[in-house]
Structure formats: structure tokens, C-alpha cells
Specification:
heterodimer; A: mainly alpha; B: six-stranded mixed sheet; globular
Chain lengths: 266, 312
């Protein structure tokens, strides 16, 4: 029944949301990989992107070459949709760790059992980390299956690198949402700020290619580290991955400290 | 012997609004202690401070001799708590929730748990979402008693329970006391707990006014009385009886408030033809007002030391 501890209970609580998110992300990626040969015969995406000019950057196309499956997935999925879904999932889940228990009023009973506030956050964070990894593995399997069926080249190690970065990016926004909800108890604010931040960072990073002056701000965007090295083509960049991981750990630490200090809602 | 609960000038302000102020409370081990006060008096604030869910503005408290913050997990293993606004995980069944909480605690005897489920007549297979308030309360009570805690902290525990289950709950409390354990019950209704408690603490407007034995509180209980006589009675016959106040006699109907024993009044009334006698137990609020004044609460913290308030 998965009711052994807070970690397994969180795994249990998130099983259905994760199922749908993983199925959605996986089937979308698999579908794109499966249909890529047909699609690329019918449409010259590079020509369309060229016609769009600088506006194509908004779609994250600045790095892409849409004539290969790798480039196609990069533009169509890894630049915007997958990070948005992964980060949204992590933020929605993490914002509920403490604020959800508070708003439902279950925190009083839970913490009257021998669980420290820090342990509560750590066990729940571990559960979300695991579900994010599972989601990434599902995407990997679907994408490779689609590519195999359509006989399109898709290097598994590179795809895995991209997915590692995707998970790290998701965890970052999850940790931001966690820190806000742990510090304030306000779940809506936590999700709102995390999503607003994600949109702003996405725009800063993609528009930096075409708008003068935004280049300075680019290092502030987590998407810069997520996409900068184009892991789908070049593999993982350890400094970039380290940067994303460090951000997640910093916000996790903030949430541990903030939650430990304050009064909890009745 | 170490007190089950001991607070020292425990104070909580929520910004500028008052939680509790300078609460010095000692609850001895092996008692059933009632923590009484009107709604908003600071009962739940005190309880949540003891549980470390709130952090005091100033002052300190120890539970079972342990520091409420530094020794939190040690306390959690030995103390159980039923919150006033009890919320449970709606998607679990009662048994799943109890299993989860039992696992978190780490040392719950499932035989003991199942016996409690039977005694409180809880259907553990139903989802919590579908349970009535009283049935949810049963789940909370099973969770509290199943860990066989040395101290139970129960915030308004009987809300929604039907009378039969309430009796069973009282037996559980008495058994716990019999084992030398301590029960701390907050309530805003004296009649609900007076036959159960050994001592009560009375809190109003965030300040602990007095801690007394139930016996001494009853001695000074206020009752409003109405006596219908067969014929008009002389006011003077009743005017100077001990404990009688607010006396009015209109024709054959006498109305008054009596503090403590009714003996003198009843014996005097018996000299006349009594057709009917109605007594109305006063609410806790009225007792507060009668004994501690309707003041702004400042300075009332010393009320327990005033003459005529000797604690038993």
C-alpha cells in the first residue's frame, strides 16, 4: 500500500499525476520520432523557419536544424514543451509538499508523529526526484521506439543527456516552488511565481539571440544552462549540469531552513 | 516527579494580535486535566505551541520534562495529539491512515489498534472522504490512543461524537489515567468534561486565570434557579441566604443565582408550597464573568491568588 513512510506515501500520492505526465510527454515524443520521416518529406521546416527569420528564435529554433530528427526534436519538443511540462509538474508537486498539508490541515496530525519538518521535505523531494527520472525514462523509451520504427537515427546517449538536463531543469523550478511554499504556506503563489519565472527565463534565453542587450541577462536564465550546450547534439556539459543541480540544492536548502523556522497554519 | 506539561511565561503574539500571554501551567502526571475557555481564548494556540507547530514569542515549555523544540522527536514518540480541526487524508481509508501513522510512529501494536477500532465502532474500510465528522473524530482518537502515549493532548475531542461513543471515549481516558498516563483535554464546555477531569485550567483572552480541582470549581458553580410557589413568598426569607444573589421575587415566582451549595435555599423554600423548581447550569462563560469579572483581561492572571479562590 506504500504507506511505510512519507517518501513512499508521496510516491503513492503522485503515481497518477506522474502516469499522465509521463504518458503525455512520452507519447508526444514517440509520435514525433515515428512520424518524422513522413513529416520531413512533406514539409521543409528549415525553409519555414528561415522565412520566419528572427521570430523563429521564439520557438527555440535558433540552434536547430530541422532536417534531422535530433534537430527536429530539439526545436519541437526539448526547447519549450517538454521543459514546460516537466517544470510545471515538479513545481505543482513540490508546492504541495508543505503548503498542501497545511491548507488541507493534515500537517498538525502528521507532525505530531515522529517526523521532523526537514525530514518531511527531504522525503517528499526524493519522491519527486524519482518520479521525474521515471518520466524521463518513459520519454526515452517512447522516443527510441518511435525512432527505431521510423528508421530515423537518434543516438540514445545524446537523448539521455538531454533528458538528464530536462530533469535537472524541472527540479530547479520544483525547488523554487518548494522554497516559496515552504516559506509562506501559499501554494498558489508558489506555482504562480515558478511558472512566471520559467516563462521569463525562457524568453530571456531565446530572445537573447535576436534582441541586443539581452545577452547580458542570459546567464540568469536557467534555460541558458539547460540548452546552451545543445545536449541533444553535443552531449552533457558538466558545468551546465552542475549549475542546474546547484540551483536545485540551494532552493532545497532555503526551503528546509524557512520551513523549520515558521509557525504552521492551523 | 516530572510534570507532564510545564510552561513558563509562555507567550504567543501573531503580529499584534494576541495568542496567549504569560501562561504558567503545570499539569501533573497521571491526571485528566481539562483546559477550559471560550472560543478564541487561546486553547488551540497553547496546544499548538506545545506541539511545536507554533513557535513562542517568549517563554518556554517542557513536555514530559523534555524541551518542546529541541527534543521534538522524543516527545512525538511518547505524546499523541488530536487536533481541534481534525483533517485527515481523504483518499485513504481509516485503516490505511492508521497504518500509515502507525508506521510513522514505528511501535504500534496492531492488536491494540484493532481493539480501539472495535470499541469506538469505527468502520475502518470506509474512505475518510465519506466519513461523518464524528467518525473522522474516531479515526483521530484511535490514532491517538493506539500509540499508548504517556500524554494525550486532545483539542476539543468530543465534537461530533454520539453519546454512546462519548462514554467509550471517557472510559478510554479513565483507563489511561489508571495506567498512570496523563490526558490533557481542551474544551469550551464545562459540562462536557467536568465529570471526567481531576483538575481544570481556565483560560480567557489568552491568559490562564486559574487552575483548580473540579471539586472546588463545583463548590462555586453558579446555577440560575427559578422556583414557582403555591402562594406569594416574602423576599426577606431568602435575601440573606448564603450564596444567593440577584434575588427577585415576583408574586409567587422566585428567581435568583446561587453559588455553590443549594442546601440553604432548598431548605428555606421547603417551608412553603413548591410547585416547580427549575435550575439552569450556567455556561462556562458566565462562571468566568462571575468570578473573574468582565474586565479587559489585564491583571486577571493573578485571579487564582485572590481571597476565596483557594485551590483544592
Amino acid at each position: 500500500m506504500l504507506l511505510h513512510n512519507v517518501f513512499t506515501k508521496t510516491i503513492r500520492d503522485l503515481r497518477w499525476p506522474t502516469f499522465w505526465v509521463a504518458l503525455g510527454m512520452g507519447s508526444m515524443t514517440g509520435y514525433f520520432a515515428l512520424l518524422f520521416p513522413t513529416y520531413s518529406r512533406l514539409v521543409d521546416l528549415n525553409a519555414i523557419l528561415a522565412k520566419m527569420g528572427p521570430a523563429a528564435a521564439l520557438l527555440g529554433a535558433s540552434l536547430g536544424d530541422a532536417s534531422t530528427l535530433v534537430g527536429f526534436l530539439h526545436i519541437e519538443l526539448f526547447s519549450m514543451i517538454l521543459p514546460a511540462v516537466m517544470a510545471g509538474f515538479a513545481a505543482a508537486a513540490a508546492s504541495g509538499f508543505t503548503a498542501g498539508e497545511e491548507s488541507r490541515g493534515t500537517i498538525d496530525l502528521l507532525l505530531s508523529f515522529p517526523i521532523s519538518r526537514r525530514r518531511l521535505i527531504l522525503e517528499k523531494s526524493l519522491a519527486v526526484l524519482i518520479w521525474c527520472v521515471v518520466t524521463a525514462v518513459v520519454v526515452l523509451v517512447f522516443a527510441l521506439a518511435g525512432a527505431t520504427l521510423s528508421a530515423s537515427p537518434l543516438p540514445a546517449d545524446r537523448l539521455a543527456s538531454s533528458l538528464v538536463m530536462l530533469v535537472l531543469l524541472g527540479l530547479d523550478f520544483g525547488a523554487v516552488a518548494l522554497a516559496i511554499s515552504a516559506a509562506t504556506g501559499n501554494r498558489a503563489a508558489a506555482i504562480g511565481v515558478a511558472v512566471a519565472l520559467m516563462v521569463a527565463m525562457y524568453l530571456v534565453n531565446t530572445l537573447a539571440a535576436v534582441v541586443d542587450g539581452l545577452g547580458m541577462l542570459q546567464p540568469l536564465s536557467l534555460f541558458h544552462y539547460y540548452m546552451g550546450n545543445d545536449p541533444l547534439r553535443n552531449g552533457i556539459s558538466l558545468p551546465d549540469a552542475g549549475a542546474l543541480g546547484a540551483v536545485a540544492l540551494v532552493f532545497l536548502a532555503v526551503s528546509l531552513i524557512a520551513f523549520d523556522r515558521r509557525d504552521l497554519a492551523a | 516527579m516530572t510534570a507532564a506539561i510545564e510552561t513558563h511565561k509562555l507567550t504567543k503574539w501573531y503580529g499584534r494580535s494576541r495568542g496567549v500571554v504569560d501562561v504558567d501551567l503545570v499539569v501533573e502526571t497521571g491526571q485528566i486535566f481539562g483546559f477550559l475557555g471560550p472560543n478564541g481564548a487561546g486553547k488551540s494556540t497553547t496546544v499548538r505551541l506545545l506541539l511545536d507547530l507554533l513557535r513562542p514569542t517568549s517563554g518556554s515549555a517542557r513536555v514530559l520534562g523534555l524541551d518542546i523544540h529541541a527534543d521534538r522527536l522524543a516527545i512525538d514518540r511518547r505524546v499523541s495529539y488530536v487536533p481541534g480541526e481534525l483533517s485527515l487524508y481523504d483518499d485513504l481509508t481509516g485503516l490505511q491512515l492508521l497504518t500509515y501513522l502507525g508506521n510513522l510512529h514505528g511501535a504500534v501494536d496492531s492488536t491494540c489498534r484493532d481493539a480501539l477500532i472495535q470499541r469506538l465502532e469505527l468502520d475502518p474500510t470506509k474512505r475518510i472522504k465519506s466519513l461523518s465528522r464524528g467518525n473522522k473524530q474516531k479515526v483521530g482518537l484511535v490514532a491517538a490512543f493506539m500509540i499508548r502515549p504517556e500524554l494525550l493532548i486532545l483539542d476539543e475531542p468530543t465534537a461530533g461524537l454520539d453519546p454512546f461513543i462519548q462514554l467509550e471515549f471517557e472510559r478510554l481516558c479513565e483507563e489511561a489515567r489508571g495506567d498512570g498516563r496523563t490526558v490533557f483535554i481542551s474544551s469550551h464546555q464545562l459540562p462536557e468534561v467536568e465529570h471526567l477531569c481531576d483538575r481544570v485550567g481556565i483560560i480567557r483572552e489568552g491568559r490562564l486565570l486559574a487552575v483548580e480541582s473540579i471539586a472546588s470549581l463545583k463548590d462555586r458553580a453558579l446555577r440560575r434557579l427559578e422556583i414557582d410557589f403555591g402562594s406569594p413568598v416574602p423576599t426577606e426569607a431568602f435575601a440573606n441566604l448564603p450564596g444567593v444573589r440577584d434575588l427577585t421575587v415576583e408574586n409567587a415566582i422566585l428567581r435568583c443565582t446561587v453559588m455553590g451549595s443549594l442546601d440553604a435555599l432548598v431548605k428555606t423554600a421547603a417551608r412553603y408550597e413548591v410547585r416547580n423548581l427549575r435550575t439552569i447550569e450556567t455556561s462556562l462563560e458566565e462562571i468566568f464573568l462571575a468570578y473573574y469579572g468582565a474586565g479587559d483581561g489585564t491583571g486577571a492572571g493573578t485571579a487564582g491568588g485572590e481571597p476565596g479562590h483557594a485551590a483544592a
